[in-house]
Amino acid sequence: MHLPHPLYGLYERRLAASLPPERMPRHVGVILDGNRRWARSTGQSSVKGHRAGAQKIAEVLGWSEDIGVEVVTLWMLSTDNLARETDELSQLLTIIEDAVRDLAASRRWRLQLMGSEDLLPDRTLRTLRDAQAATADVQGMHVNVAVGYGGRQEITDAVRTALRQQAAAGTTLAELAESFDVAHIAEHLYTRGQPDPDLVIRTSGEQRLSGFMLWQSAHSEFYFCEAYWPDFRRIDFLRAVRSYAQRERRRGR
Questions:
Q1: Could you list the active site residues?
Q2: 39 and 57 Cβ atoms separated by less than 8 Å
Q3: What is the pTM of this model?
Q4: Which residue of 36, 76, 167, 239 lies most exposed, with the fewest beta carbons within 10 A?
Q5: For the chain, what is the radius of gyration of the CA atoms?
Q6: Mean pLDDT for each 10-residue chunk of the chain (253 residues)?
């Protein structure tokens, strides 16, 4: 629904004012989807779609900050995407590097790389690590930058790390089989120490997680927005948060 500008502003303000502060999500996960389709719909190249999507990131982080969100996880590139050796991938990695570098330069948010580092090109990995180091002392909102990320890969990495740790401590396979539980995996996830996502938003109309935060989203609320990522508006974000606030969170009970 695209309202005339004066009505749009009024509706947006009323929507923001209606959100109950005590029911705001602590952690919001965002699947940034629809850059290519946005580009096709506007007669532009995929690369321009990715650039338009990159320009949206700081806006959404600002909106999250405004309502008191503590952690935002941005899924910017999957492990599946990395498997496609194309010119578009090379340009997309450059766009991601530029976007993350700009986020770090703003000094507003504390950035953390989230993904399989061994799958990333050296230049990309170096840029992301530099951004993480440069914002380590920032006291603002925590932002996970999921690049080269896949939920199955994350769980695999967590199990592998846990097994290596137990083996180094001299634990036998039989002993490990008896004692191994969910805590052994949880403490080795990329997001260890962080609250699980309360709300996961996916743009572009697709209604699936595609492997995003499989472990952490067991009790998350999901919101699927029709807008392509470059067209995602503050009003869309506020509607997602309102939907979350109106739900009864049962957490499996």
A1: 33, 81
A2: no
A3: 0.93
A4: 167
A5: 19
A6: 67 92 97 96 94 97 98 96 82 97 98 94 97 97 97 96 93 92 95 97 96 97 97 97 90 62
